Structures are given as structure tokens and as C-alpha cells.
Amino acid sequence: MMSRFIDCYIRNDEEKNRAELAERLAVRFGERAPRHDREGSFPFDNFADLREAGYLKLTVPRAFGGDEISLYEFVMLQERLAYGDGSTALAVGWHLGQVMHLRTTGKWPADTFAELCRSIVTDGTMINTFASEAASGSPSRGGRPETTAVPVEGGWRITGRKTFSTLSPILDRFVVSAYLPDEDCTADFLVHRSDRVTIVETWDTLGMRATGSHDVVLDGAFAATDKRLTGKGIDDGGGWMLHIPACYMGIALAARDYALAFARSYRPNSLDKPIAALPSVQQSIGEMEIELRTARTLLYAAADRWDKEPAERTKMKPELGLAKYAVTNNALRVVDLAMRIVGGTSLSRSNPLERYYRDVRAGLHNPPMDSSVIQTLAAAALGEIAP
Fold first, then answer.
1. Residues 6+ apart with CB under 8 A from 94
2. Which domain holds residue 192?
3. Same domain membership, residue 144 and residue 80
4. Alpha-carbon distance 113 to 380, whole Å?
5. In a domain, 387, yes or no
6. pLDDT tens across 82-105, in order?
7. What's the pLDDT band for 386 if we cut at 50, 70, 90?
8. Cα–Cα distance between 3 and 177 in angstroms, integer?
9. Strand pairing partners for 224?
10. Neighbours of 279 (CB within 10 A)
11. Which positions fall inside the Acyl-CoA oxidase/dehydrogenase middle domain (predicted)?
């Protein structure tokens, strides 16, 4: 069994083998990450490797040829992938997470889901949901989409513009949310890429520069009648979204390990030992460990409970939100401490800490946002029955 800090949550040989696969991919992606970050280019090469390795089918049910991994293992693998490249991990996490969500909720028609799963296994198809818009903001805030769907013969014509459309350069199909004026409601539609769908390359950001989260413009894009998704099924509490904090934890672990290696080896000529011997550096390392160990405990405990207690998933939203809140904010602190240990060279564009610093900040803007988590926790506390 592997013995590094990152390995302490591996429980068996099957998880160990998959973890080693993710780490091999992460090494490869880490070598390419500076270029994709610098260019803001989409890492098609990484996704070809993910497809070849069978990574894209990890959350597909076994009945369709997938691995049907648990949420716990999903978190563990995403953490490792992000250790090499946060952008790639976050992007593929949306695909894997969406499939896990559909698997556990049954919200799609059975035939439509089966068709998607088979296509993932045989063709390496990926999926994501495009819901954010400039005017309505994040869908987690409850805004009504300005994208509209109007009925036509055989289906629907969908018109609108979606922002933060991660994976848009590589997807041949995706889900969009749209408002139906005739029914005064919102629904989801499965849309295939066509000449009525245009990608506007707007993604030029501080961090997570290689996720391909461009704007997608739909100009009367067609969705057949049976591609209006029901939205029924059970509430799974949103456990699949733990792929988000898992990604930022992976980045923080990479920053921690870089800082440790630096501290063990760097000896300025004013010292007779490496800086790891300095009490001030040991203080910073200890503080990093507190942040990491606290956050990882919350993250893995939430994932494990979600797996083992399906009847409690709906009630777990405060716990799941807390895991995301703690991991994201603690990861920010870890990267900051790592940069303080390394010093001014951490600001160099050639130093990976500079990229980690930018990438990890994106977690603040992934759902659920801090304010929503705090409100959920407060509501849960106030909703308790007084003794």
C-alpha cells in the first residue's frame, strides 16, 4: 500500500490500482499544463488519454459496461488528477459527476440514459449541463433562464446564450435549461451539436484557463420531443458535486508537496541547513497540515456517508456544502502558505505555485458558493427542535 499523505484514504487494492492510473495520467497532464494554461487552450490531448485509459466511463453503471465507482472513490481519483492539472480534473469531473447524478437519481428517461451510457463506453462520449447565463447568473441562485424553447413539429427550437460552458470545445451533445413561455416553466433538453450551435471563445480567465468554459449560442437549435428531459427521479442531495472540492484539494496537495520539497532542499548561504530546519518554516508547514487534514477528513467522511446511507442523502446538503466550503477555503490558505515558504520565486510564471494560486481561487465561484453554504447551515441549525 502506498504510504504518502495523499494515499491515506486508499482502502483496498482495487482503489489502489485506480489511484495509480490517475496518478500516471496526472504526471502526463502536469507536463502539459503550463502550455495549456499559458495559451488558454483546451487540452484535447489530455482527453484523448482519459478516453484511452477508460477514465470517462468510471461512473457509468456496470450494466452498460462502466465501472460504477462510489462517490468516495470518485473524490479520491479527482483529487489525484487535479494534482497534475486542475483544469482537466475540473472539466472531466463535470462529465463524470453528471453521469453519477443521473445514475443515482433516475431523472432521465431510461432509454435516453442507456443510450448515453453505451455511447460513453464505446465512443468516449462526454456530457455536461449548460445552465449559467449572464443575466440570470448561476443556476444555483435560482434565476430563470432567458434561453427559450418553443414547440415545433417533432420537437423544440431552443434559442439563447449560455456562459461557463465547461467542455464546450469537445462535446457533441449537452443539456441546456430553457424557459417554455407557453407553459411558464423551465425544462432541460438534450441538444446535439449542429450548425445552429456556435461556440464563442470567451474563456480568458485568471485561473482554470484550460477548461474550455466558453459561451455557447443556440440559434433555434433543435431538440426532438423525446429529448425534453423529465427532471423527475429522486433527490440525491447533490453528492456528485464533491468532485469540485476534490479538485481544489488536489491542487492544494500539489502546492504542499512542492513547498515541502523546496524546504528540504533549499539552503541559502546564510544557513548550514536547509530552511526546513527553521522554526518559522516548520510553523508554516504545520499550519498547512492542519488546513489539509481538517478539510480532507470532512471531504472523505461526507463522501463515505453519502455512499453508505442513501436514505439520508437529501438531509446531507448541509454536510456536503460544509465539505465544499472547508476544502475550498482551506486550499486557498494552503497555497498561500506554500508560497510564503518558497518566497519570491513562487511568483514566477515558470513556477507551478503561481498557477496553483490562480487555479485554486476559482473554487470560490463554483457551487455551492460560500454564502449559500452558510445560509444552509444556519437554516439547519434554526430548524432543529429545541430541547
1. 128, 166, 167, 243
2. 129-229
3. no
4. 34
5. no
6. 999 999 999 999 999 999 999 999
7. confident
8. 45
9. 155
10. 7
11. 131-219
